[in-house]
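Lab channel / #folding
Pinned by the channel admin:
"Please post every new chain as: sequence first, then the structure tokens as a reply. Keep commentary short and put observations after the output so the thread stays searchable."

First post following the new format, from NK:
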Amino acid sequence: MLRRYVEQILSLYNYVDGLLVTDKDGYIEYYLTYRPEISTLKEKDILGKHVLDVYPDLDEESSSIMRVLRNGKPIFNEYQLLRTYKGQTLHVINTTMPIKVDDEIIGAIDVSRYIDSSYERQNITLSFRQGAEMKKLYTVDDIITNSKSLEVIKSRIPVIAETDSSVLIYGETGTGKELVAQSIHTSSKRSGRRFVSQNCAAIPGNLLESILFGTTKGSYTGAENKPGLFEIANGGTLFLDEINSMELNVQSKLLKAIEEKQVTRLGSYEPVTIDIKVISAVNANPIQCIAEKKIREDLFYRLSVVQVNIPPLREREDDISFLTEHFIQSYNEKMNRDIINIDEEVEDIFKKHKWPGNVRELKNVIEGAFNVASSRFIQKKDLPEYLAEPFKTQGIEDSLLMAEESMLNGGLSLDDTMDAFEKRIIQKALDSTRNLAEAARLLGISRQSLNYKITKYGLHK
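Reply from TO:
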């Protein structure tokens, strides 16, 4: 029962090295360390033991956990010198809080940050994230659909979640890849551990490498001792979105880490053992990505032990009206409105639209309409301009003909032709929409990718 508090606590803090949960009597029910190179205790060694048996130098007064269990008052940022029953000494900053149900203390949770030296503790605090909220991860029940293809995926998620095999999710932007990834995590035995998500799009390789694997102080200018996402997710699930945007040299290191089940921080020679389930996602056909050398073939086979293909919204016609009604009901509750549905003209527009931004685009369109609708039915005038006055295809055809003519006349290579064509289309999308979000939805790419391409081609926003 106490394990369900772990994800909530982890979502509140900027930085956590270790976490321990006890019942109301001080017996350990959960333990996790993100820095096993500092704390060598393992969960299997201490589960069920009393906290005073694990740290025999502590007593009822010196143990922050025992004090919190006794008086129910939280203790923030207390320095403690801990000696384990195995003889290891740890310097830690602890924040300890009671766990209550109906004002009855049922346990305590202890959040720690380790200190490499007792002289470095003066300025270290465990601080709450700004505007921190109890984060609730998605479950299978959050996948709203009237589509047979998605119902099949929903039925398979609990089965996929039972193993530690890697999962590759293929779906266009906005189809709900992270929703599926979180549902796999919350359906698994790792549900009480961390779910860590990272979008790999448009992040430079050297930065992404440090984000994934961590850094050691002095490995480069300004670098500090910091765990990477692999260490942070240890024991839980790591979700890597848009891996087809990851530089190939980082992909090779990713493959090595997954194969060997260990990572080495930048600037360090000491490997850290990891135990995680890796879920990755691509927003383009993975076989095509391999052919275009956007994904290493060996990494693809390692990541796609289980593959989940999410069909785009345009192939799930039943879901367009079904989700429209769902989002209308949801925003009625959130915005205290009483909108009944969309009118017939909007229904016709929705049926003809290709939804390049998929479910995310539909949700945003409904939310935008709620902000301006003046009647109880969403009308054409309430829709964004690109939907009310669809993007003309003539510009695309003209650009394609010009690019084709330049290539055939020997003026451009195939790569240059494709770049020129992409540049024209992106600029036309920018000129035809009100903001970057609309342009990205129109093009069927993420806003991060659009920003990257704008910079790449020197386009005008």
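NK: The two ends are 51 Å apart (CA to CA).
TO: also worth noting, DSSP finds 19 helices and 16 strands in the chain.
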